[in-house]
Amino acid sequence: MIKIEFNRPATNSWLAWCEECSEHQIILNNSHAIGDPQDVDEKLYRKQKEVYFDLHDVFHGKCAYCETLIAANHPGDLDHFRPKGRVTESGKPVVIVDDSGKEISHPGYYWLCYNSGNLLPACEDCNRPSKQKTGGRRIGKWDEF
Q: What's the predicted TM-score (pTM) here?
């Protein structure tokens, strides 16, 4: 993967979306802080999906991982580079130690859920776990980081 300098649009719709994302992120963070995590609004972070898939913008309509033209073979996904829900390694949950010293499954990077810098265009092959095209070897990023 190459480093990309993502210049965020200055359109009114982008700025309004960023404000809405900030509000939802505060609610999500607070819900995690009190031990009652809210669900992620999947539709919200996808509202500006077209910005990431624009053929004339920073990713040129390509997957951020393999650089395949996404529109050429399938619609693609908007991927959270740092997984929003949980984190796995080789398909197994990553374990961390909480403040009380107890081992728990990594909760994911929920505090980056609506962060535009954590969103990347990805083809389905790079983002979704699959064994169909590899003879049984699991590929796809899914919730690994």
A: 0.80
| Tokens standing for residue 106 | 């990594």
φ, ψ at 46 (rounded to 5°) = -90, -5
Task: Provide the phi-psi class of 69: left if phi over 0, else alpha when psi is between -120 and 50, else beta.
Answer: beta
Mark out the alpha helices in 34-75 (DSSP H runs): 42-46, 49-53, 70-73
- pLDDT tens profile 57-110: 778 888 888 888 887 556 788 889 899 988 888 778 889 998 889 998 888 899
The closest of 70, 82, 72, 84 to 126, measured between CA atoms, is: 70
Cβ 106 vs Cβ 86: under 8 Å: yes
Please provide the distance, in angstroms rounded to a whole number, between the alpha carbons at the two ends of the chain.
14
Sign of CA dihedral 112, 42, 75, 83: positive
Contact 61, 73 (CB under 8 A): no
E strand or H helix at 13: helix 12-33
Amino acid at 73: N
